[in-house]
Design goal:
Elements (H helix, E strand, L loop, with lengths): L22 H9 L3 H13 L4 H21 L5 H19 L11 E6 L3 H16 L3 E7 L3 H11 L3 E5 L5 H15 L6 E5 L1 H5 L3 H4 L4 E3 L2 H12 L6 E3 L1 H8 L1
Parallel strand pairs: 1-2, 1-3, 3-4, 4-5, 5-6
Helix pairs in contact: 1-3, 1-4, 3-4, 3-5, 4-5, 5-10, 6-7
Length: 248
Amino acid sequence: MPQANKGNTPSQGSRAPRRIFDIEQFIKLLVAGDRVGCRDFLREYIAAGNDSLQALESLIWPACAAIDQLSRRDQILPIHEHAAMMLLAQLVQRLECGLVKHPARCRQVIVTSGRSPSEELAAEIFAGLAEADGFDVVFLGGGVESDDLFAEVGRRLPQFVISFAAAGSDAPRLRRLIDAVRRQDPVPGLQIGVGGGVFERVPGLAEEIGAHFSGDTPFDMLEALQQAASGPRAGVNLSSHARRARAA
């Protein structure tokens, strides 16, 4: 079972140099649908001294992004992309068990995504990170229509709604949700965060549709959510580049 490290931050001070893992080999195993090979690869990665958070951020997420790119360039078949993403989702669920669990925040977050396999996986990774960080997470999966999502918001009364989207067609769906929330105000103070491919490719789109905060990756999104939860800070926008600069 993957081991958690203190605070869900990369561990420091390892005396022995760590083995360098070939992520290209991992991607080949995923595309081939090699379940045993992928599990063994992850097991060796953890045994080499990496923790669950490092596996998610340095292995799983880069592999997801690479497979998405291969699919967009028609370098792999859709069925192989589907198999690879299914395998990644299974590995993510294993790794979530090793994340450090923080005290409950008593703040509910509804998480959804577009229909793209990569964005649904991004939402699943984020859901696990947010849950470990103390948020009460409801993960609805991909492709939820705006009317259904609005109805669920009215039933559950969350403090936050997060959606990852890859395609341009997802933006109007989110805009309809945000407009409905503004008109009817089902949950006073509700904040909506958006992220993923389409918002990364089109700077300013998140602000244009009225989102309160955004993040390019699941890890950026968690940081933006933490900032939003700490006070009334609309407009938080964390790109991967900005996140790395803040950490430096």
